[in-house]
Amino acid sequence: MGMMRLLMLQLLLLVVEPTPPVSPAPIRSAHSLALLRARDECGKGLTPDQRHQLDKMQFEDAPHVRQYLHCFWSRLQLWLDETGFQAQRIIQSFGGERRLNVEQALPVINGCNAKTSSRGLGAQAAVDWCFRAFVCVMSTPVGEWYKRHMSDVINGNA
Questions:
Q1: Which of 28, 62, 65, 108 lies in disulfide reach of 32, CB 3.0 to 4.6 Å?
Q2: What global pTM score does this model have?
Q3: Where are the domains of the chain?
């Protein structure tokens, strides 16, 4: 009887022994999901190497980069061909004062819009303007913040 009781206890311990906790997948914010969707949609025609370069935040002056950036920012509704980057919406979309230095970001984005503005007609002028304005922003501390943030989004940390 003692041996049977011992076996029952061991069996019971096996059944109720807790399993190691499983780490849940990180919960992504709606903003991060929107960034990833825009990235995927606009990157459909890219080669794996081109996609890798963009993911590494390397934005060469090439037609595929210009098209990708215009698509990405337009899809997020943060770029309008008539007025350029929507600075206030970008700041709100990227977390506002909690995440960005608004006093720095607002004039940088608006300044790059103005400095690089294209008054030409046609879709290509808007694509070129978007690229030039983006490169301008990327050369500032706001661009450095954007690179870190996008890297976190791409790597599942935001």
A1: 28
A2: 0.78
A3: 28-154
Tell me what pLDDT residue 99 has: 80
- Interior CA angle at 82 toward 77 and 86, to 5°? 40
Domain 28-154: CATH architecture, name and number where available: Orthogonal Bundle (1.10)
**Nearest residue to 78 via CA among 104, 55, 109:** 109
Q: Is 156 left (phi over 0), alpha (psi -120 to 50) or beta?
A: left
Residue 72 has a CB neighbour count (10 Å cut-off) of: 20
What would the mean pLDDT of 9-17 be, rounded to a whole number?
51
The burial of 108, by beta-carbon neighbours within 10 Å (0-12 exposed, 13-18 middle, 19 or more buried), is given as: buried
Q: Tens of pLDDT along 82-107?
A: 999 999 999 888 877 888 888 999 99
Return the bridge partners of 80, or none. 84
Helix (H) / strand (E) containing 92 = helix 87-93
